[in-house]
Specification:
InterPro entries: TPR-like_helical_dom_sf. This protein is 72% helix and 0% strand.
Length: 275
Amino acid sequence: MTSPELDTPLTTGPLERARRLAESGDLEGAAAIFAELSADPEGHDRAQAAVGLAVVLEERGDLAGARTAARAALATGHPEYAAQAACHLARGFEREGNAEQARGAWQAVIGVGTAAYLPLAHLALAHLATGEEEAERELRAAIAVGDPDLSSRAAQELAELLLDGGEPGEAAAVLVEALPLAEGAHEGRLRVLLGIAHLELACAEFAGAVEFSQEAETSALAIELLARTLPLRGRADDAERVWDYGLTHPDEELAAQVRLRLHRDLDGESLSPGA
């Protein structure tokens, strides 16, 4: 019993015996017990046994039988084992590269409605999405569940998607909302992304100041700030164009101030109006 979605302890006698047989390598013996239990329509352990049978049969190489067993577990509607069965099906289809079948199985997980499995399903559906709008919708759904691990991962992926799409403001909003959930390494990653989003927003504001300011001093400062920030986002060529714009500006006072700012030593100096 190695699949991570099937780690729920088996506490009853026959189920425990089947688990121990599977762990010891007696897959045939384990399958026989699981099959008997899952075939009992009145059995309390039917759903759990069907999931166990699906795992054992897959390990034996009987994919068709494994999927039949997983579908039987799913059909029970059990909040835990039906969800596990749907996850088992979805991962199998993903390994085969069958995106459409995998999508259907992950949607079945959502249909079961067990909260612990929802962020995993929504994340998987985001990865299988055929367009950015669908991916964004699924990632937002995963975030909304509020799982410290998976919701934080979804927030990271959504923020990256929004940044790539030129929406740093929306990315920042997603990250700020998700940060209270994040723990450990997730918090650090989200804060770095939030800083990147703020850098992008800063670049946009500096560019706006260059365009709309009517004061040479303010415009020169905005040009310097924009040109010094762009390389932090891997846009050194754009930074050079910004410097060139200022240095060749028809307003001689502005061009002179930009020239001074380009060559000055920044140690101990403040980049603020009047500096």
